[in-house]
Amino acid sequence: QARLEESGGGSVQAGGSLRLSCVRTGYIGCSGDMAWYRRAPGKEHEEREFVSTIEPDGTTAYDQSVKGRFTISLDAAKNTLYLQMNNLKPEDTAIYYCARICDNGGRFWGRGIQVTVSS
Questions:
Q1: d(Cα 61, Cα 116) in Å, to the nearest integer?
Q2: How far apart are CA 93 and CA 117, in angstroms?
Q3: How far apart are CA 47 and CA 24, in angstroms?
Q4: In whole angstroms, how far apart are CA 23 and each of 12, 13, 75, 77, 116?
């Protein structure tokens, strides 16, 4: 059974860095882009917020709030997606989710991992 599993979260002070990893096991069943989304505290009933995406050809995109601070990358040989997060801010505090954004419109999500940034 396919799975996306995030790791690398934790607690840091503002200005610090973290690198999230997302390992895919099994076959998801659709092709498409890989992405990171997040959901901030108190927004459990809202949709996840887009953070970054990477296309199969390596093209990347970022939300304006993280542009210049976060870097998405993909190691296809290791089936692993990364998100390098630098100069973290308290407003980056959220649960971060790895996702496959399928070409057919479907989405396959990881379970999420907590990132907490203190001021």
A1: 23
A2: 5
A3: 23
A4: 23, 26, 10, 11, 21
The backbone region for 112, taken as left when phi is positive above 0, alpha when psi lies in -120 to 50, beta otherwise, is left
Residue-wise pLDDT tens digits, 21-79? 999 999 888 989 999 999 999 998 999 999 999 999 999 999 999 999 999 999 999 99
- For 22-72, give the DSSP string: EEEES--S--EEEEEEEE-TT-TTSPPEEEEEE-TTS-EEE-TTTTTTEEE
Task: Name the residue among 58, 98, 56 with its Cα closest to residue 81.
Answer: 98
The per-residue pLDDT for range 58-70, each reduced to its tens digit, is: 999 999 999 999 9
DSSP, res 87: S
Q: What share of the chain is helix, strand, coil (3-state, %, to 5)?
A: 5, 55, 40
